[in-house]
Amino acid sequence: MIVTDDAVEPVLGLSRTELTEAMGRRWFHRPGALPSAGACTWADLNRALQYGNLGPDQIRLVGGEVPVGDLFRVAVAGGGRAFHRIVPEAAHRALATGATLVIDQLDLIDPWADQIARALSGIFTARVQANLYASLRRAPGFGAHQDTHDVFVVQGSGKKHWTVGTGTGATDLTMCRGDVLYLPEGTRHDVATDAEGSLDITFAVPRPNLRELLAWALDGSRDARLLAPVDTGDTAARTAALTGQAEALTDAEVHSFVEERLHSGMAPSFVNLPYAGQGATEVPDAPVLFARRSFAAVLPDGADQHARVLECLSATEPMAVGELVSASGVDKALEVVCELAQRGLISLSER
């Protein structure tokens, strides 16, 4: 079962109602949706490059005159362990020659990006990935294209010019710091960097589609008709087998498919040392603890008590564990809290 924090709003300065009504239907631009002080800055990018332990599997260069391999040097630590370090001169030269630097999965190293990605994940019931794009001096975009997923764009430092749509229905707009843009899957767009450069973070929302659902169902099917050799002359048999598989899908199976996708892509992330290593009888002896939950959590069927505890918690406002135990109305509530902490589904911390 999926347990979401439905009380969370706004996300990216937008209400849950705005997000769900626009989802997959229409694009929108919200100038100044976020406080400019909270938008990504060049200092944030510099810090990520210096201390994020990023390698060629997470950083890309689009355009420019510097091969992405030149961005890194391999440093050797004690015991012969190798790791990557950014070469500053190469990064500077890459952007100066028109490259766009991309950090994939920024949510893995940046708490704010992770928080937003998980909030959107709870609303869209899909794995959400944050990417950062950095460019200087009117760097060219990627050309007019359309994405195979929904996209939220948050403008940080600088400005970026967008053309959304095609032909007479196209709209030109400029994203400034704190602006938010939403593009449903398939919305054609093109971008160009302003003279002062641009930093923006995109949140990609690959909502589960019917093709993926059918592939998932076929992969787990035990229908003997699907194991029969293909008879090019028997159209009716092929149609009956495939149609029968689609019609046999139950709502419960569809929910299982969505849960598996969400769970595999948005794993629990709360590390709760030392408390998760203690038993329920030891936790009360620690200093006053506060609990906070993730925006979306996947629990096994039958974990109703765990769901009730989660539903008492907020993803943004910590709650005293003692208060949580009383409010949940669950037998052995502290044991349930400890189990959730051990699984990384809630955060336990001193305030």
What's the short version?
The chain is of the alpha+beta class. The chain has ten helices and 15 strands. The protein has helices at residues 16-22, 42-51, 88-96, 111-124, 210-219, 235-248, 251-265, 304-312, 321-328, 333-342, and strands spanning 2-4, 28-30, 59-62, 72-76, 82-86, 100-103, 129-135, 150-164, 171-175, 180-183, 189-205, 289-293, 296-298, 319-320, 346-350.
Description:
By secondary structure, this protein is of the alpha+beta class. It has three domains: 2-73 and 81-205, Cupin (Jelly Rolls, Sandwich); 210-249, no CATH class; 275-350, Arc Repressor Mutant, subunit A, CATH 1.10.10. Helix content is 30%, strand content 25%. It is built from ten helices and 15 strands. The protein has helices at 16-22, 42-51, 88-96, 111-124, 210-219, 235-248, 251-265, 304-312, 321-328, 333-342, and strands at 2-4, 28-30, 59-62, 72-76, 82-86, 100-103, 129-135, 150-164, 171-175, 180-183, 189-205, 289-293, 296-298, 319-320, 346-350. Strands 2, 3, 6, 7, 8, 9, 10 and 11 form an eight-stranded antiparallel β-sheet that branches. Helix 8 (304-312) crosses helix 9. The model has no long low-confidence stretch (mean pLDDT 85).
Overall geometry: globular
Low-confidence spans: pLDDT under 50, at least 5 residues? none
The CATH superfamily name of the largest domain is Cupin
Strand coverage percent? 15-25%
Give the number of DSSP strands: 15
Alpha carbon gyration radius:
24 Å
Helicity, as a percent range: 25-40%
Largest sheet: 8 strands, antiparallel
Return the domain count.
Answer: 3
What structural class do you assign from the helix and strand content? alpha+beta
Separation of termini?
A: 30 Å
**Order of H and E elements:** EHEHEEEHEHEEEEEHHHEEHEHHE
- CATH fold-level label of the largest domain: Jelly Rolls
At CATH level 2, the architecture of the largest domain is Sandwich
| Rounded average pLDDT | 85
